[in-house]
Amino acid sequence: MYHFCTITTADHLFKVYALFDSIKNQNHAAHLHVLVVDDYIPDTNLDSLSYYSLDNIRNSTVAKEIISKYSRDKDKLRWAMKAVLLKHLLAQKEIEKILYVDNDIFLFNDYVFLFEHLNQYSFLLTPHNYMRNPHKDQIWLEANFRVGLYNAGFVGVNRKAIEGLEWWGGCCAYKTERNAWRGLHDDQKYLDLMPVILDDAYIVRHKGCNVADWNNHVCPRVEVDGEILIDGEFPIIFVHFNATTIRSIITGKEPLLEKHFNTYLAALQKSKPQLKKEDLLVSARWKDTIKLIVWDILTK
User: Fold this and answer.
1) Are 190 and 172 in contact (CB under 8 A)?
2) Backbone angles phi, psi at 156, to 5 degrees
3) pLDDT, tens digit (0-9, with 9 covering 90-100), for 16-43
4) Strands 201-203 vs 123-127: parallel, antiparallel or unpaired
């Protein structure tokens, strides 16, 4: 059995159901564990889908501190609770390895090799793969150090990662905020230190993992015999369909991901039939929208 987990608010459960479908579509025995940070818990009972409330995992000092500190900001609460949820799930006897994925991720190809990495390594990280040319578009080079080397929308862990999870959770309890002056970016920037904290942390080099608009230069999409490959070599394992990735696809900046987006949209519409692709852009926070506009100006 392969175990996955994610964190969501109730109004984004339609994304969780799409994620769940994409996991099932790979034809492996798998289970998705979902922490819902609102009071609402669905009454849907499925053998391979479990729901957790905050009360279910409010069993550690760090968990209580995070919940108390960020209960009014559901975004910060979701980000800060990742390490807590992973540690809680690893305490269950049947779970030795687990992948955390954001609820706006969608799988397109076999993921088993990621679990195989966890036979040898305790913590999996995927790099953002921002541009890093010191001679051109240096704002992207600097973004690596402002936003973080690794994307916190995906991590993989086994039971040997407990020390790292406790440290990460403690960091999120300390501060989960975006403050470039202090070197902070939500829960994410802390991951830069994970290979220092754990000597068996592993950077996933498969460029088909965590495909998103921010890595379309370092990880170019290429059509080969009708299949979209990353860098002409790597099949797309999963795409991170956050608002900026969706915007890039809708505006024609990512034409080779349009088919993947249409598949994702159809999966979303199974539980939310009235959904239109433009609706997915509205979910971007106004602060992030302003930052994106400024970013577009600076990178031209």
Assistant:
1) yes
2) -125, 140
3) 999 999 999 999 999 999 999 997 888 7
4) parallel
Across-strand partners of 227? Answer: 224
d(CA 16, CA 159): 25
- Note whether 201 and 194 are within 8 A (CB): yes
* DSSP3 helix / strand / coil % (the chain, rounded to 5): 45, 20, 35
Distance CA 171, CA 158 (A): 20
**CB half-sphere exposure, 93, CA atoms < 13 A:** 0
Task: Judge if pTM exceeds 0.85.
Answer: yes
Contact indicator for 243, 283 with CB cutoff of 8 Å: yes
Find tokens 């990353």 and name the residue.
Answer: 230
Tokens of 256: 């080779």
